[in-house]
């Protein structure tokens, strides 16, 4: 190119892309992508969450979708200047489709598109009433028999689910259900969030008392309302609960507490669900068009069965049932597992003067909290990042713009830095006999989370207890229980008054089996994982989180889950998909998730 400036190179590629898309020249558009390129689309073009690879993948998606979604008008985002580093030009872009507007991030290498993220942000004609479109609130002037805001809200709450049916029912009122409920409210989609607890936030309040967020505050905002500037970096669980309860109220989410779904079924003829709800002792039947399971990717406890459990005279709890150490002072406790919950519970029990033994059944990835904050998250989610102009929204998009296929390549150097920085710490753990790993390919915590949702601990103090021998360490599988002990497969006998099974959680489609039917759960397949063919994430390659935030093989059934960051970011794309269907927009789905039943 005659002009090698980053801006001019970017503009030339965008002009060529716009011209090719406008003329319907799919081959010309695909030729703008490098051989090893990736187009990650969040709802804008695919009406799905889908990553296509290489010119062939781009061409295939466009052959399917170009006529329907008509992407185009790609421009450099106003106020942003493309930047070049190490031969890669990075540019923030905006674009339009036939039905919406979006923004994204493009990377160029050797004058061709290397990665492109396109993320739908709003639907034309159905924009959120925010910013300059915010409602007036007050109705100035005099009017007889006027209803107040409070009266209108009370009338809506009394009618919805009884006189008027919601378009969407969300089962599960944790951060995922709440975030989606807030998005739908702002888009004018009638929805009810159902939760079995007494108050919003009880999902957090009911957990063991030492629980706190291991992610820093900049990573954990909810949509629309950010945590205040004086909020603690790591939020205690009861404070999270209070925030969720406040948020639910001020965002006017129709949230039913003490409401447990007993059965749900789908009628293909009517295109509606029948959802039977026990609402505080009253049976209520809801008939939504769309059903969302927001029961949490860590919501269905794995409760292994071992021989002799029925003869054990002590207490056996899953980690989700464990409330804390208060009644176990002076008692012997065995914790089965070595991931986040196991470490947290062991540390709290030690602080409460219990005699604690952790049983490590398989190797665990551990990263120190301060190292993760500085090296792993600091460039995107920190005060320093904000000072450098990286807002939460930008950070989310930067993270989303890295295709899962190559994300590990960006993560490996970061975890290599952590391993070197904390070498003495890891030597201490290994000397104590703790089995460490860094993921199958050395890519560390984030990839383990995305691939399998388990296998790691962010160290906030428990590791030093293991190094010092104050929390005892045993290794191996559980063979059987005796009246007063757990016996491992190598014959080691661990006397116990309490056994905590920190054995993790099952796939979210287990909730579909319980609440709907095993047949529907089988139709959907497992939820979560990328198909990376690494431990606990077998192939085939999917390239996105299986069945999460996107259409599934079961019509009108969706899954919403993940951590606070994912709940914030991906709730938008699920809400836009639901809004589009409510308004009758054409939503042809490209690359519908195939069914895989993973072990």
UniProtKB/TrEMBL annotation:
It holds the Pfam family Pyr_redox_3. Residues 18-113 form the SnoaL-like domain. It comes from Celeribacter neptunius. This is Putative flavoprotein involved in K+ transport. Gene3D superfamilies: 3.10.450.50, FAD/NAD(P)-binding domain. InterPro entries: Auxin_biosynth/cation_transpt (IPR050982), FAD/NAD-bd_sf (IPR036188), NTF2-like_dom_sf (IPR032710), SnoaL-like (IPR037401). Residues 129-152 are annotated as: Disordered. The lineage of its organism: Bacteria, Pseudomonadati, Pseudomonadota, Alphaproteobacteria, Rhodobacterales. The keyword Transmembrane helix does not apply. Keywords: Oxidoreductase. It comes from the Bacteria. GO terms for molecular function: flavin adenine dinucleotide binding; monooxygenase activity.
